[in-house]
Amino acid sequence: MSRLREQIGTVSKPPSPIGWARSLGFPYTSAAVPRGVEPPAEIDALGDNYDTEWARGGIARATRLVAVETLGRAIATATCLPELRNRDRLDGLRGPVIFVANHHSHLDTTLLLTSIPLPWRHELVVAAAADYFFDTRFKAALAGWAYGAVPMERKKVSRRSADRAADLLLAGWSLLVFPEGGRSPDGWGQPHKGGAAYLATRLGLPVVPIHMDGTGRVLPKGSRLPSPERVVVNFGEPLRPAEGSDARSFVTDIERAIDHLADETHSDWWSAKVRAHAGSSSSLAGPDHDSWRREWTSPERQPAARRTRRWPI
């Protein structure tokens, strides 16, 4: 037995491909770093560093357009049965626009990519969470191609994210932002982050508020299968930052505009206008209660704005 072990121990293992490549040296591997020199840190190509320029090239744009107008539109129609309201409020608008919307479901992006009117629909990039959609190469490539997404930091202030979005807007692209930073966990709205307001005040661009009613009932956070029903997509009047205003005050204006649209969706234009003028519109942030009470009174538990339909459609 001991002789057998000695014989086995003398058998050399075949060299690994990595070890073989390293034996060849430069240029098949990285150049050696001289002694006393600190090697450069490797830059993570994911997250906020992911380059999505390829997704705005001709082939990617053409295939995405076909996918959105066929598969995307079929999914949005079958699951959300969308009712689009007040798109005529955008009739006199030209050039790049920042669209902002409430966020309750993974269906929101697909629904808006098929609801936002031309020409913006096909000249649109989506600000997507860098830590969620760009954490692996597969998810990053899929988000970049399917949504035209660009990574946006939502947990910290990122100069790179802001400058990237500003450059795209200056180049003529429009931007879709979910200013809550993520899907609602309980059906109520979350405080808005200031990215869209900052870009609008920095570049002097209009912001179009959008309110979606029903996607949280169709496919709420944590669900895998949709429960189809009517979803109302209500477009608001374009907002422009007042002269001398800053992003902090403008983000409040945007949040109030979406609250007003929600009121308009569930009542009527005149009643919502009166309440907005009086400053008595209900806030999508909901009541300041315990989590179970907030969930119990959640808008997702309330009747839809219009009649609903279930399978089969």
Provide a brief overview of the structure:
The chain is an alpha/beta fold and 313 residues long. It contains twelve helices and seven strands.
CA-CA gap between termini = 74 Å
Query: What is the name of the CATH architecture?
Result: 3-Layer(aba) Sandwich
Q: Helicity range of the residues?
A: 25-40%
What is the tally of beta strands? 7
Question: Which whole number gives the mean pLDDT?
Answer: 82
Structural class: alpha/beta
How many domains is the backbone divided into? 1
Q: Strand-residue fraction?
A: 5-15%
What is the count of DSSP helices, taking H or I runs of 4+ residues?
A: 12
> Biggest sheet, open or closed, and with what strands and sense?
7 strands, mixed
CATH topology: Glycerol-3-phosphate (1)-acyltransferase
Following the backbone from N to C, one meets helices and strands in this order, namely HHHEEHEHHEHEHEHEHHH
**What is the CATH class name?**
Alpha Beta
What strand line-up does the widest sheet have?
A: 1-7-6-2-5-3-4
Shape: globular
Say which CATH homologous superfamily is assigned. Answer: Glycerol-3-phosphate (1)-acyltransferase
The stretches of 5 or more residues where confidence is low (pLDDT under 50) are 7-13, 306-313
Write a structural description.
There is one protein chain. By secondary structure, the chain is of the alpha/beta class. The chain has one domain (52-301): Glycerol-3-phosphate (1)-acyltransferase, CATH 3.40.1130. Helices cover 39% and strands 10% of the residues. The protein contains twelve helices and seven strands. The protein has helices at residues 2-10, 17-24, 58-80, 107-113, 130-133, 137-147, 159-170, 195-203, 215-218, 247-266, 269-278, 291-296, and strands at residues 83-85, 98-101, 124-129, 149-152, 174-177, 207-213, 232-235. A seven-stranded mixed sheet has the order 1-7-6-2-5-3-4, with helices on both faces. The radius of gyration is 25 Å and the shape is globular. Mean pLDDT is 82; it is low at 7-13 and 306-313.
